[in-house]
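Below is a complete specimen:
___
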Amino acid sequence: MMAPTQILSAEQMRAAEGTLIAGGISVDELMQRAGRGAADYVWRIAGPSRRVTVLTGPGNNGGDGWVIAEAIRQMGGHVVVVPAAPPRTDAARMAQSLYSGAVADGVIDGDVLVDCLFGTGLTRGLGDADLALLNGLAARHGKRIAVDLPSGIATDTGAALNDGLPDYHLTIALGAWKPAHVLMPAVARMGALRLVDIGCAALADAGQVIGRPRFYAPAVDAHKYRRGLLGVVAGAMPGAAVLAATAAQGAGAGYVKVLCDAPLAVPVDLVCARADFGDDRLNALLVGPGLGRDAGGHFLLAEALAAGRPTVLDADGCYLLSKGMSATIVTPHEGELAALERHFDSRGEDKVSRARNLAQASGMVIVAKGPDTIVAAPDGRWAAAARASSWLSTAGTGDVLAGAIASRLATGAEPFAAACEGVWLHGQAARITPPPFSAGELAKSIAKAYRASL
């Protein structure tokens, strides 16, 4: 089974390649698959008229670069290889021996730079000479392409191992996505992302890129309660609850109620009613947007969680959790994530490990949101969203996300799936809403995003 959406750590990628080799595919053949697949993407940018410079390192990522260069040469392109060091692996030396084009030393001018200096597995920063060569070439090429990963990036954390690394217009992942392809700060420098599939089998414990879900029209005998009743708890700042409820209306639930103690001005198609957490028709609850952190907010949270309904917890609710309280899904931003980690005595070195460890410690599905959003389940599953639109950096968009996720939960979706579906709807809504947009405009686009998956 091929798995073009899986995310593999450096160790998992080595294991996946080892399985292919054990199955009879040579390292040389894997390098040819990876390099020639990457060359196709380079050719789309360079064509026959642009000068291509391939920067190669000593390992197999450098070997991929020699393959790319020979493929570009055979296509009729203008290509020069700049080796930062001689090949040190048998496969890289073989790839070098098959190259029949030009080689140059040091910094040269060109149009397209292909960075094959270092790829998966780098754990320390570039040396001064390598960093100077990379930056010197980057400054003299209008287009920059990273193969596998930009040199100087940690595979599993997305951390920059050097200051002053260049940015790229395109990054071509080889074999599988790596955590760095979905994590800040690395992903912000990578430009467009493409994947070359070399035949790696699906791994049971791999992460996944959140893809477009598949939704269906309601059954012919459906009615509003059968499609899911969601209660959105309003607190000290009820506008946030109304915003979340508006988003929830477009994400699949058949009936969305704002639960409040006082009348609110709401859209004509949105119901506002006193909270009755004992209503057996409630399929899910959303607590947190605009809740407030005073005693009233704590009371509402405790009462809602005591009802035992599938519950999404957001915003202020993340700070108000006390001993014995637990929800189904929680959607923290960075500050809320840190607060939850303190509460559950959980920690991690990067966003993926932080989300996964917190999910295991708390028993809740964690949606660690931000420019890089990670969804983690208590059973170890995890997934990452595609890079988010920077236009989401406006007040209220988190409430829209919580509403979309809670709506999916109310429809009966399994919690991890509900979280992933809501995250995708939120990201797609941002992509189709003309910028600059408000959270209210984003909420109304959730329904348009949903229609894209019918």
